[in-house]
Amino acid sequence: MATLVLGAAGAAIGGAILGVSAATIGGFVGSTIGSVVDSWIVSSLAPTQRIEGPRLDSLRITSSTEGAVIPRVYGRMRMGGNVIWATDFREETRTTTQGGGKGGGGGGKVKTTEYLYYASFAVALCEGPITGIGRIWADGKLLDTAGITWRWYPGDEAQTADPFIAAKMGATNTPAYRGTAYVVFEDLPLGNYGNRLPQLSFEVFRPLADPDTAEGLTRAVTMIPASGEFTYATTGIRKGSDGAQTPENLNALSDTADMVVALDRLQAMAPKVESVSLVVAWFGNDLRAGDCTIRPGVEVSAKTTSPQTWFVNGVSRSAAHLVSRDDEDRPVYGGTPADFAVVQAIKEMKARGLRVTFYPFILMDVPPGNTLPNPYSDNAAETGQPAFPWRGRITCSPAAGFAGTVDKTATAASQVAAFFGGASPSDFAVSGETVSWSGAPGDWGLRRMVLHYAHLCAAAGGVDAFLIGTEMRGLTTIRSGANAYPSAQAFRDLAADVRSILGAGTAISYAADWSEYFGHQPGDGSGDVFFHLDPLWADGNVDFIGIDNYMPLSDWRDGFEHADAAEGWPAIYDRAYLQANIAGGEGFDWFYASAADRSAQIRTPITDGAAAKPWVFRYKDLRAWWSNPHYNRPGGVESATPTAWAPQSKPIWFTELGCPAIDRGVNLHSKLTHRDHLKMTHLGGSKAHRRAPPI
Length: 695
Description:
Elements: H1 2-18, H2 20-45, E1 49-52, E2 75-79, E3 82-86, E4 90-99, E5 109-127, E6 132-138, E7 141-142, E8 149-153, H3 163-169, E9 180-189, E10 200-206, H4 214-217, E11 220-223, E12 238-239, E13 246-247, H5 258-269, E14 275-284, E15 294-295, E16 297-298, E17 305-306, E18 311-312, E19 315-316, E20 321-322, H6 339-351, E21 355-364, H7 410-420, E22 428-431, E23 434-437, H8 446-459, E24 465-470, H9 473-476, H10 486-502, E25 507-513, H11 534-537, E26 545-549, H12 563-566, H13 575-580, E27 590-591, H14 595-600, E28 604-605, H15 622-627, E29 652-657
Parallel strand pairs: 1-5, 11-14, 14-21, 16-20, 21-24, 24-25, 25-26, 26-29
Antiparallel strand pairs: 2-10, 3-5, 4-5, 5-9, 6-7, 6-10, 8-9, 12-13, 12-17, 14-15, 18-19, 22-23, 27-28
């Protein structure tokens, strides 16, 4: 080859004229010239190759079916559609060149020409109006809509013509397809589908929102899970380094944050919803009120995220509470939602026209095998508190009813004060949408959490309602004297401070447990009956009576050899049966005095002797409780003057309402068990067991 010949010649010439070192240089120059000659020779023998990809011989789209029936959908359904409009396929060519030889001297080249095709079309789905489109499948696989231009029309009688179709057809020639729900795609790439239209199917939402249906009756919902570091963010968050990032909150759709998808689905399936309670959790670590700290938590102590990082109340990830882990080294809870995510969620819901209730929440992170003193034992001498308990179990230590209890003493008041902490509205620094803590570093009381979120809600533009606490039954029933309840006053003080931050436009209250709102009846033989929350309900900074309502609506058992069947009710699913138990049945007409009585259905009537006010003991009798003045009964003797509660003065809000989603869940609404507990319990006659988070 020329490379060898010219290389040898160059070496000889260089050596003869310039010496030994020049021989090397001469050989290199000769070889370089030779390689160029090689390229010329090869090029002449092997000219540039041209490769063309497959090309459609016809650009006409497959015609749609004429005379097809327009379906009518109820609820949520996956369905195909009928093409009602399309343009010709758009062809795009892409040519690439490979090769070129060594040393820039030419050589064989390969030119490849690809033909890419794009389709613009409209697909009719069903009779409108629909409320949303969920997932889309193409040839049976989920379609990643990131980067695809598409939109849907509900099929109402007011919809206008699609602007893209109008631009192609002319405004006067473009129908609006009123009454028909349809989808429009612009320039859908067809390369992954063999240069043809894929078989498309759509998840369509068209709820039957009549006034007597769940979809038509539901006006408010609670947004959970309350935890999850970026759960509520409306922008995509990714974790990891630039080279290996994975999505944190892009699980439902690759290009849309989970929070946005959740709100889309909510409004699609429950179009009458007007209000959402946004639940955000910090973590308590002890059932003893005087020892419990409440802190924001994270799932892992180190994580790189972008474009935003985790901060709550000015606390960074490394300084946050690290949630417990299970036997498989998984976090048992998600972390506290980042502050920026909470702000984004509030703004997104407000932009959709939804009212927002902010709901601060305490998740108890007391893991199995802990060695904490159990306040529910004599002298608090028992080692080990229940794992992941309900926050309503936080109490004084030792608790009321156990030997050595501090209930009804000044020590109980001190423990309550420690639980609330000393945070004030001025202990926070607010900069734009960022709220940080400037108070005492070791103050991790409830006030710090609640006042932080009051400031954050204000920074987000405000909320419609704000809760200062929820279901603290064990705390609110602590007494510092015979008839003094320090928690009620502490919540009143907190309500006043929240009012100073959020102003008169926000409704403020406390969300009491359904077994707590109406009064404290200790059952210790004293005969005491106190409307212990009345000072709070009557306070001028409290706007409504908040109740988390999980009252039982049935007492159904196997077969028909049980009390409710004997009364003639046909089934637990009978609407009249359930309605009769709203203001009737357990908690209204009768109660079970013990677990044994419940098992045997031995029912004790609710009465009030000579006082003739049985509604005092009926937690279901909201109407009577709301309509009447309240008289405390120390030692069972009714006081001469009523409490501060003014009958019918404030509305009642059900801040939560629900039941376990299992067989006979309405037997005992509030009987939830933690997902990690090995021992499951029957739910008031249910044949099923359920694992559920402790909420």
